[in-house]
Predict the 3D structure of the following.
Amino acid sequence: MLVALAVVGPLGYLWHASLLPDSYDMAAMGYPDWGGGPGGHTGPGGAVVAVADLVAPTGRPDVRARFEVRQDDEGYTVNGRSPGPLLSAVAGDLVEVVLVNVDVAAGATLHWHGVDVPNAADGVAGVTQDAVGPGEEFVYRFVADREGTYWYHSHQVSHVQVQGGLFGPFVVRSPTADADVLDQLAVVHRYDDGPSLNGLPGTTAVDTEVGREVRVRIINTDNGLLTTWVNGAPFEVVAIDGVDVHEPEPLTGTAVRVPAGGRVDLGFVIPDGGVRVDLGGTTALTFGGDPTTGTTRAPPDELDPLTYGEPVSLGLDPAAADRRFEYRIGKRPGFLDGRPGMWWTINGHHFPDVPMFMVFEGDVVVMQIENHSDDTHPMHLHGHHAVVLSRDGTAATGSPWWIDSLEVGVGETYEIAFVADNPGLWMDHCHNLQHAVDGLVAHLMYAGVSSSFRVGGEHSNEPE
Ligand code: C2O
Ligand code: CU
């Protein structure tokens, strides 16, 4: 937000300096939207709890890491590299990560994308904590209660720091995971000097034997959609956004889309001749050889997760929703932080005059996301997984399609549902981080939660 003035230059800066309040209280921004359900500032319990008190249980961590973040001419690193080190846990582990900001001038945080952490560990500057300045530290603690593929990234000036490299992979394995399966990460990112896979350009060859089972964990850390496809063997989409697909069918000649911020796990068995997994057409992984001549194209057919796999109970009843929200995305001219321009709108309003989606703990929530703009939006809700109910009025018929990052294309309408089971103040924004900085940001707020953090202010908190 405020930092975006860097891109509009000195004139923008003058606008900013003269017109802006010097800090925002996110908990008090926007207009309360109770989604048709009952209101009340403290909710049925009547108590008020601070974001900073919504923490993991005490106890000895099972996984400990120390992540030192740095900045240089080329960008950002975690423990000297980008992507940062793999953080690895077993489901149920208590994880403790110490963020040490060595010299990132604007400050930094760590957000655990797709992990439904307690609110105090969510890592959003100005919302759940203050940006961690150079020479400072911050401790994140959470229980990694669900296996799956996730990632971590800074949520301070994120449109600059994430693109510049301040991120890394996070994998939570099942305690009963099959050790014979070859587990392969595929972190896809476009740095200033071009596209990369696990930090490397081009094709990476993985040595493996025929008959081996492989799980490829694809993480799209970019601002745009990633398309992936497989040559050489039938494959299954075994998980989306860290949640297993129920009874996935084998696929061939089918492209799979991974929204910005999203993850897709692919499974296959290595045949004679090997397997090639293309990631966007510029980087690829090969396993036990390359079954192609090295150039391939995305097949025209695309997987539709709305109909993929077999249904199973959602564990919630959308028909009995306590609240129904609309998240209508548009664009029109106006002012954002005092800057004139064409900015995104939510339900017709410019940030910060956007809805504050208000819930009570335990509510079943249905949200309709409509894209009336001329660009696609990978929408990301923090702290919760939502299940897709329908797209453009067509009901989902496959495996429950649980998401934390959902590509909402131009003109599309998605209906999603979730249970409000993680109290706090949570961002609900577009993960094209350039769109977020241009106003495509709202929040989900639990009644009875207060935050003492401010966007702007003395810590220069700039979540986007
Ligand atoms: Cu991947 Cu609000 O973040
Ligand atoms: Cu967007």
